[in-house]
Amino acid sequence: GQAAVLTFQDSMGRPGTPRFPTKLRLLYDDTHLYVGFDSKDADITERFSRRDDPIYDHETVELFIMPNVQVPDLGPYIELQASPGNVIFDASFTGPRQNMNKAYGANQKIATRIDGTLNTLDTDRGWVSEWAVPFSGMQGVKTPPNPGTEWRMNAFRIEKYRKDGKTQGEFTAWSPPKVGDFHRVARFGRMKFGK
């Protein structure tokens, strides 16, 4: 099947097109959720190297998933991230920023393609992060979703770039939380599994 393309906006809800656009595609089968982030980036950088390093402090793409959770429930949920250098961060929560468990492992496989050079001061074009996330590794999932099943989710991107000699940040979201907190779970959207 064809994956619809989800686009990102300013995470605070301000109007305008992001300087560095992101496209997200989601597909699934009987065993995995497949995730593809396509991120425009003029200077791809990485500061971290170990699993569960705080990649959310630099450049990353993020997916928050609440399996088997529908509006208006606010948890539990899992947070999955990957950086341009292929570093994974994953954690589980019982509710909004509650009981973060970094020992949680989703067992996702990730692959990254960089169109440019990592950590080199030149002009890059972007990077693609593709994930295969097994349903068996998702907290709270006993059986794969059926067509029509609805979960809650959100997706984010943190982009760091240099402007006038200073590092700036662009924070974008699929469903903008409109506050400076990606864990504003009340603003998560709905993910409905198709046929």
Shape: globular
Largest β sheet strand count, sense and barrel closure: 7 strands, antiparallel
Q: Whole-Å distance between the termini?
A: 9 Å
Secondary structure tally: strands? 12
Q: Would you kindly provide a written description of the structure presented here, covering whatever features stand out?
A:
0% of the residues lie in helices and 42% in strands. It is mainly beta. The strands form 2 sheets. Strands 2, 5, 6, 7, 10, 11 and 12 form a 7-stranded antiparallel β-sheet that branches. It has a 5-stranded antiparallel β-sheet with strand order 1-3-4-9-8, with no helix packed on it. The termini are close together. 32% of the residues are buried. The mean pLDDT is 96.
What is the structure about, briefly put?
The chain is mostly beta strands.
Output the keywords.
42% strand; five-stranded antiparallel β-sheet; mainly beta; 195 residues; seven-stranded antiparallel β-sheet
Task: Chart the SSEs and their pairings.
Elements: E1 5-7, E2 9-10, E3 22-28, E4 32-40, E5 60-66, E6 77-82, E7 88-93, E8 109-115, E9 126-134, E10 150-163, E11 166-173, E12 189-192
Antiparallel strand pairs: 1-3, 2-11, 3-4, 4-9, 5-6, 5-10, 6-7, 8-9, 10-11, 10-12
